[in-house]
Amino acid sequence: MQITLKLCNKTLIVKLIGELDHHEAEPTRMVIERTIAERDAKNLIFDFSDLSFMDSSGIGMIIGRYKLIHSLGGQVALVCTKPQTERLITMSGLKKLMTVYPGVENALRDLKEA
Amino acid sequence: MENKINLSFLSKSANEGFARAAVSAFVAQLDPTLEELADIKTAVSEAVTNAIVHGYGHGNGIVTISCALSLDKTVCLTISDAGRGIENIEQALEPMYTSAADDERSGMGFTVMETFMDSLVVQSEMDKGTTVIMTKQIGSDSTLS
Lengths: 114, 145
Ligand SMILES: Nc1ncnc2c1ncn2[C@@H]1O[C@H](COP(=O)(O)OP(=O)(O)O)[C@@H](O)[C@H]1O
Ligand SMILES: [Mg+2]
Known about the structure:
Chain A is an alpha/beta fold.
């Protein structure tokens, strides 16, 4: 899996390309945690628009990062366009904790206004 | 078309992707929709991950998959480990239940398997291992939600 990180003001945008499963969840978690600490990020956007696969290990990884960001007073947003990923997100109740957007720009705009 | 494969591999997390890809390539001969294929891949990923993470507790063991295709286009997947076993299957099947919360497990694995497949049966014996049997009929439109 390929991870691209971008910081936009205080929001860290994490773009994941490939397959997010249990094997990939741990290295992904470590990169995100390190970057949040080093760059003092407040909010987090997961960009899943080029993610070809995700299972419940991905859900566990998202919830883990939500807990951290939430404890720092920030917000987490998801960008998702794939029906399969969206189904998993809905099923696991993530939408009660964070908003799903069709594009990164939409998510950034909302986080700025908050 | 009647057909069958058996796979066995070491309980290494790098094999999770291999298991999904192998089953998906085999099932492709039934001409499933992309959604049906994605459902099957996700269910395989959940069961194989459970064998590796919970069954063998990240230790060494063998995970086996058998995948059978029957004439009515039903895919039957049997995924087994010879690991720790499940003490309380009913509790394990509950959405959000996990015995490994500090491992960032979401407890949604069995719920995903149940939702994405037509049927799910879990057999387990303590210290003997766990077998998950799942079926899904291709072309039945049952995946339309
Ligand atoms: N193959 C297995 N061997 C032993 N225990 C298992 C196995 N599969 C599942 N379990 C048990 O069932 C629970 C629920 O599994 P699941 O729904 O996939 O959630 P998660 O994997 O996120 O914990 C696990 O936490 C574990 O206790
Ligand atoms: Mg699981």
